[in-house]
Amino acid sequence: MISGALLLLILPLVMAGVVYGLLRWASLSALLSVGTALVLGIAAVALPLDQPVQLWGSRQIEMGEAVTFLGRELVLEQADRMAMAVLFFTAAGVFFLAWRFAPHSLLLPMGLGLLSLLSGALLIRPLIYAALLVEIAAALSVFALQSEKGPPTKGGLRYLTFTTLALPGLLVIHWLLERYTLTPDETELLSMAAILLAVSFALLLGVVPFHTWVSTITNDSVPLASAFVLTISNGTIWFLLLDFLETYPWLSNHPRFVPIVATGGLAMVIVGALLAPAQRKPGSLMGYGALVDSGAALLALAMNSESGLTLVILSLLARPFGLILMAAGLSGLRTHSGGDDSFDALRGIGWKAPWSTAAFVFGGLSVAGLPISAGFIWRWPLCRALASSNQSSVLLLLLAGVGVMAGVWRTLSTLLIRPRSPQDRSVISRSSSEGWLTAAVVIVAIMLCVGAGLFPQYLAPLAASLAKTYTFFTP
């Protein structure tokens, strides 16, 4: 009998080696990567946990069977299987767009390897050992973030640095809580653990003032690889935070929990709102848009209720639609501008790369929370939920969305500048140099983003059902 937990850990690692050997064949390597992510996502969500499933011959797979690997127990629980399905399906979307916008890059094999490590982080027990796997995943991410011919990526190294700084705090938390079980009268141990937990996850999530890696990683790294980090790796951190709150419910009941989380969220929203419209590089704009989105999710968590938790999970479902589209568009724009995404280099490029421009614009509007986009389906309910108790937060959220849209508008205006002289017109052609395959991929991605915004009834119930698997907010 094959353990489902072990399968989710080993299969992507094996396929990473296969895809690495086939990188010269872009379509085949992308097909294998997308297929692996889709199969694992379907298996995680569709196969039952409590009974074995016949595969072939006498082979059986039992998803819920616990297994010991390297002395640690791997367990697939209900909340984890839904979380992993979200990560696998998101990875499939990244790999699909990488087929046209980042062929032959290390994103495909490294992405599969990261899926194996991040799956292990969600499966391993005790929970504290997940921090070690997250650290290894951050180190592996540097290779995916590094472009083949570019200089060393400062964003990747900064991301690795902040992840490393978070590791000691998470390990000390485990020791403090073990001491508390032996000496329950020492309540100061709980306060110390709560402080360390807040600082550690602030480093991992890029909460202000630890946010500098977020904008840097999108500014100088492979765009789709940075989107992988900001959606899949970041999503894993969010689910680990929820697992910590579920394992230690006294954390969410701590009197300072709501003020600290709300303050962190507001700081991220304010910084993103102020800096997003001032950016002169689309990569930096993408990073500050992600910062606003994460800050809004923290405000939802600070509601300290099941409805707020539902909005957090809905944000994790909706975020990839916008960020991955922005990353794909940014990748195409950099290709046509010689790798430089400054406004001076991008002047008029929109006429030459219309599909990359469309991807970036639609993705940016989704990150800003514009109506009929995927980002709107959770940003508007959050504003409505906060309107009765915290109107200043609602105003800041709306202004942050306007700030991101202003940055998108500035970028679009630069991309669509028309040639002013015959010499310029001969350099920047008005005809598209992107093929029909690229156009088809972008159209499919935009339709999915708009479809998610027009039909939220397909994502909202999934978020609500996943929120119900957590009980730490239950009165």
Q: Over all CA atoms, what is the radius of gyration?
A: 22 Å
The major pleated sheet works out as: 3 strands, mixed
Q: List SSEs in N-to-C order.
A: EHHEEEEHHEHHHHHHHHHHHHHHH
Beginning-to-end CA distance, first to last residue: 40 Å
What does this structure look like?
With 475 residues, this protein is mostly helical. The protein has helices at 4-21, 26-46, 78-101, 107-123, 130-145, 154-182, 188-205, 212-220, 223-247, 257-275, 282-301, 306-336, 343-346, 354-368, 376-387, 391-415, 422-427, 436-454, 460-467, and strands spanning 2-3, 53-54, 60-62, 67-69, 72-74, 124-125. The two termini are 40 Å apart. It is globular, with a radius of gyration of 22 Å. The strands form two sheets. Strands 1-3-2 form a three-stranded mixed β-sheet. A hairpin with a 2-residue loop joins strand 4 and strand 5 (72-74).
Could you list some keywords that capture this structure?
globular, 6 strands, mainly alpha, 475 residues, three-stranded antiparallel beta sheet, 71% helix
Please specify the SSE layout and strand pairing.
Layout lengths: L1 E2 H18 L4 H21 L6 E2 L5 E3 L4 E3 L2 E3 L3 H24 L5 H17 E2 L4 H16 L8 H29 L5 H18 L6 H9 L2 H25 L9 H19 L6 H20 L4 H31 L6 H4 L7 H15 L7 H12 L3 H25 L6 H6 L8 H19 L5 H8 L8
Parallel strand pairs: 1-3
Antiparallel strand pairs: 2-3, 4-5, 5-6
Helix pairs in contact: 1-2, 1-4, 2-3, 3-4, 3-9, 3-12, 3-18, 4-5, 4-9, 5-6, 5-9, 6-7, 6-8, 8-9, 8-11, 9-12, 10-11, 10-16, 11-12, 11-16, 12-14, 12-15, 12-18, 12-19, 14-16, 14-18, 15-16
